[in-house]
Amino acid sequence: MLALDMEAFLMMCPKRVVFVALLLVGLTMPAWAETTTVKGELVTVMCYTKNGDKGRGDAHLSCAQKCAKEGYPLAIVTDDGALYKITGTLSADKYDQLQPLLAKTVVATGTTGLEGKLKTIDASSVVEAK
Predict the structure, then answer these.
(1) CA separation for the pair 73, 94 (Å, rounded)
(2) What is this structure's pTM?
(3) Contact at 8 Å (CB) between 41 and 98?
(4) CB 94 within 8 A of CB 83
(5) Residue 52 in 3-state DSSP?
(6) SS3 for 74?
(7) How far apart are CA 28 and CA 80, in angstroms?
(8) What is the pLDDT of residues 53-106, one digit of tens each?
(9) From CA 55, how far away is CA 72, in angstroms rounded?
(10) Using the 8-state DSSP alphabet, how is residue 31 labeled?
(11) Is 98 helix (H, G, I), strand (E, B) or coil?
(12) Mean pLDDT over each residue of the chain, to the nearest integer
């Protein structure tokens, strides 16, 4: 009987069903899920979190390349010291597409979020800054 009542409700109130579905989808998306741009130096998370400023720049490039090839995640360090781990399709194949940009200033466009306490950017593009 309950199944019939629910079915009847769904048939009588399709606008309510759509509203509830949209509401549930909206609640699962982070409030900050908007396209943004992040500019900074491309580093490996391992090198930067372990060594701080010594884990970045041309002097640390060979280590960063080695870490990236081993599969450590890449991130962008902004001028104000914020670290954004790059996620999404550009992180595929050990960040293969991004490895040539290590230790360079880049501009990433994508959706920011959090992974624990670590800021992330699901980047749709990462290009060398001009």
Answers:
(1) 7
(2) 0.73
(3) no
(4) no
(5) helix
(6) strand
(7) 30
(8) 999 999 999 999 999 999 999 999 999 999 999 999 999 899 999 999 999 999
(9) 13
(10) T
(11) coil
(12) 84
Residue 63's nearest CA partner among 78, 51, 81 is 51
Rg of the chain in Å (alpha carbons): 21
Task: Supply 2's token pair.
Answer: 């309950």
Residue 68's contacts (CB-CB under 8 Å, 6 or more residues apart) are 44, 74, 94, 95, 98, 99, 102
For residue 21, give the nearest of 33, 31, 32, 13 by alpha carbon: 13
Residues forming a β-bridge with 74: 44
Q: Is 65 left (phi over 0), alpha (psi -120 to 50) or beta?
A: alpha
How many degrees, rounded to 5, is the angle at CA 98 between CA 94 and CA 104?
135
Compute how many other C-beta atoms are within 10 angstroms of the C-beta atom of residue 2.
6
| 43 beta partners | 75
DSSP H or E segment with residue 59: none
Max Cα distance, the chain (Å): 72
Q: How many residues in total does the chain contain?
A: 130
CB atoms within 10 A of CB 63: 17
